[in-house]
Design brief:
Elements lengths: L14 H32 L3 H30 L5 H31 L7 H14 L19 H5 L12 H6 L9 H19 L4 H13 L4 H6 L2 H17 L3 H12 L9 H7 L9 H22 L1 H10 L16 H6 L6 H22 L5 H18 L9 H12 L10 H4 L12 E10 L5 E10 L1 H8 L46
Antiparallel strand pairs: 1-2
Helix pairs in contact: 1-2, 2-3, 3-8, 7-8, 7-10, 8-18, 10-11, 11-13, 12-13, 12-17, 13-14, 16-17, 17-18
Length: 525
């Protein structure tokens, strides 16, 4: 998915180059919206969840119309230069977001308030709201059975486990406090959507990327089925991804503590946020280029530990069984996640040794992650996102409890590794004043990361930061400082000591001058 460069070698792009970039971007929009329409059509026909079938029928029209309009824009810009191509594409993306996400979500929330939960809400939303209600009344949500309402026809494993971490109950508090009769605004999906949109816009504003790249990241996270479909049904995964994006952007700007705090919020909501943490921790550096792995992990722990520790003290066995064993398919009650993954196919012939097969496949994933971390240590946030995306995709495909929907995590991580700028642009206005100044070139020993582009794993360029000692001259050149003023030429000084030769004094009276160096070899006057 190439992004337009805009400026080459410090020169403004020509009108022909701008028109070519706009046409290429519009064709990419056509392909993405067309593929989204296909996904919506498949969901409307084959998805086993009634809510997802409804979403497919509602979202098929907006995606198909957007694909046609994007193709018309590409054809128009191919013949005549575009005035404001990015603005037109952004308006089209916002219209698709309204048609494919906001309208289906609003209808499902209204239908739920009128008809009940059976066809208009998924189990994760019901568990988050009911767990918040139990917690609000002083009970342990992980020790409660929810065999009523929506889940009364589900297998026992579903209504005996809440496979999410405790921070997810914050989104169900409005319904727990006000009750179901307070109206549709207490639906937990509205909270997930509000957090996802607000955090995503903040992350994109701080990213320092170009408008083209910001639009691409927004489309992958919210507009395409990788976001709109899951916000309509659940929303927890998109909220976790939005928080991870903000954490990645803050770390990319040299703020490891702030990025760790935001990543800790994501990790306290769902276990899926834990997998990218080792890669982001090794890539964490502050504005001076110093490694900040410890500070990043300490910030993550300062959020996760206070949230999870009380429930671990309350009942550690039930917490581990709900949030670790049950999602992996290793609990006494089988999970209903049975997506077509390679791990499930490998474990099918060994029904009595499913735990052994799951352990072997988990060792494979851990080995690949350690190989990437130790052999190709990420030297920047972009490389960390790429490696985390590869390992996440491998983990989803090798999981014995298949959840193909989790592929939205590696899709977003890989998109961030491509679309984030190599070096973020300075922030505008008052926000820029909050940034720390660069290290002074007069500091005796300046260590700064030299961003080098080396051949990486599977051909991907690995951005690594190699420590380099800068002299005062190289630091001034890299920071764009003015060179020192040239010093005055030194005058020849007479040597002191017994070997010094004193030049002869000029004569006081008339007579021939002693021959000097300039007149040596010439006849005297």
């Amino acid at each position: 998915m190439p992004a337009s460069t805009g400026v080459l070698d410090g020169q403004a792009p020509s009108a022909a180059a701008v028109s070519a970039d706009s046409t290429r971007a519009a064709w990419w929009d056509t392909a993405l919206y067309g593929a989204s329409a296909v996904v919506a059509a498949l969901a409307a026909r084959f998805d086993y969840i009634p809510l997802q079938r409804t979403w497919g029928r509602l979202a098929l029209g907006p995606y198909a119309v957007a694909a046609v309009l994007a193709a018309l824009l590409a054809l128009r810009w191919r013949r005549r230069p575009a005035g404001r191509p990015l603005r037109a594409r952004t308006l089209l993306a916002v219209a698709v977001l309204i048609g494919a996400m906001a309208v289906p979500l609003g209808l499902e929330v209204a239908w739920r308030a009128h008809d009940g939960d059976r066809l208009h809400v998924q189990s994760e939303i019901f568990l988050a709201e009911q767990g918040s209600r139990v917690l609000f009344h002083g009970g342990d949500p992980y020790r409660t059975a929810y065999h009523y309402g929506l889940l009364r026809t589900y297998p026992p494993g579903v209504w005996e486990h809440i496979p999410y971490l405790p921070a997810v109950f914050a989104f169900g508090l409005p319904r727990a406090v006000l009750g179901a009769g307070a109206g549709p605004l207490t639906d937990a999906r509205l909270g997930f959507t509000a957090v996802s949109v607000a955090v995503a816009l903040l992350a994109l504003a701080l990213s320092g990327a170009t408008g083209e790249r910001r639009l691409r990241m927004l489309m992958v996270l919210l507009v395409l089925p990788t976001g709109a479909r899951y916000l309509t049904g659940g929303g927890d995964d998109v909220a976790v991804l939005a928080l991870l994006l903000l954490a990645v952007v803050l770390e990319h700007r040299g703020r490891p503590v702030a990025g760790g705090l935001v990543a800790g919020l994501a990790a306290a909501i769902k276990q899926t946020a834990w997998l990218p943490l080792p890669f982001l921790a090794l890539a964490a550096r502050d504005t001076a280029g110093r490694r900040a792995t410890g500070r990043f992990l300490a910030a993550v722990g300062s959020v996760v530990v206070p949230v999870v520790a009380p429930f671990a003290v309350w009942d550690l066995h039930r917490l581990v069984d709900s949030v670790v064993l049950y999602p992996l398919g290793l609990s006494n009650q089988p999970t209903i996640a049975r997506g077509p993954t390679l791990g499930r196919l490998l474990a099918a012939p060994f029904a009595h040794a499913k735990g052994v097969v799951a352990a072997v496949l988990a060792v494979v994933v851990v080995a690949v992650a350690l190989l990437l971390l130790l052999r190709w240590t990420p030297g920047g946030v972009r490389a960390a996102c790429w490696q985390a995306g590869v390992v996440f995709a491998l983990a989803v495909m090798l999981a014995t409890a298949g959840r193909p929907g989790y592929l939205i995590y590696p899709v977003n991580l890989l998109a961030w590794s491509w679309l984030l700028p190599q070096r973020p642009a300075p922030l505008p206005g008052a926000v820029q004043s909050l940034q720390k100044p660069p290290p002074s070139p007069r500091t005796p020993a300046i260590y700064a990361p030299a961003i080098t582009r080396r051949p990486g794993w599977l051909g991907w360029p690995g951005w690594r930061a190699t420590p380099r000692r800068w002299s005062a001259r190289s630091a001034r050149r890299a920071l764009g400082a003015a060179p020192r003023r040239p010093s005055r030429p030194r005058t020849a000084r007479a040597r002191s000591g017994p070997a010094a030769v004193t030049p002869p004094a000029p004569p006081t009276s008339g007579g021939p001058c002693p021959p000097g160096p300039e007149s040596r070899g010439r006849p005297a006057h």
